[in-house]
User: Fold this.
Amino acid sequence: MPSPLTAPAGEHSLPGDAAFDTLASILKAAADGLRLRILQVLRHDSFGVLELCNLFCVKQSAMSHHLKVLSNAGLVSTRRQGNAIFYRRALPAASVRATLLAELFASLDALAMDATVQVAIDRAQQHRSECSMKFFAEHSEQFQAKQDLIAPIDEYRGTLNELLDTLLQPGEDGLPGKQAVELGPGEGHYLADLAARFEHVIALDNAEAMLERCRRTATRKNLGNIGFIHGNTRDLVELGEQLNTGGAVSARKANCIVANMVMHHNARPQQIFSEIAQLLAPGGVFVVSELCQHEQDWVRGAAGDVWLGFEELQLKQWAKACGLEKVAGSYTAMRNGFLIQILAFRKQSND
Assistant:
């Protein structure tokens, strides 16, 4: 008679063991202080190995080991950016691990960030931003030609306008045509489309050289309802609800904010979503025209791209975290092989 503590011959596992193994793997991977801190800093951003080494003053070999453990446990996912690999938190689908990951990440998010690490993060983000701003300062004269190599506005203008016109249709969920903001309008080739649909339009750009070219376009096209602000979304938030509209001051928040091929130039695209949510009026929409994730690393030098496009799921996650819900979307294939996603996110009207 077999001992009650001995498994019968031929039985090596119990039903559901895979689920227990998955949970055990997650718990083992998370049972380390440094790995938990890595997960904490990946809350709203992705970092490369060397960036993480600098954040935590850890040798590359040790950091690579920790990242491998986290990756094998499904706690982080990777994304190749040219020759570099960036790490971010995993986006758990519905599964046995989803609840545990959600609870783990929520617990980490409730902890205060170490002050030294936060300074290092800010320094890394500042370096990314400076590289991007330097590119636009040095290439403002050639930028439109470079941008047109990748995603010329005329290739997706019709789809973008169709989406906007649908959102502007009268009705319970109809978007008021009062005030719009375009982030990073380049030389202003989409401003006329917005000016025809909204009473007031603000062109916001953190590169003065680009904003000046935008002014020239507006003047040439006799656009009288455009205001120009040199700055970024954070600057606009700090202005409060007083949005300068070229001589007139409106206390209204924006009904619509448009970002055409802007997010992949920004060091912290997730932060833009947070600031956009503060600038939108309840029920307002954020319309994003953006490259889908790709592997064309040459765009970094050619057009100053920081990121090689984005997955829709990542954009939706950033939006959801700020109270923005996807309400419309469309994809447009470029003849050069790039794929553009045009997504509309609405701010909850009960905010």
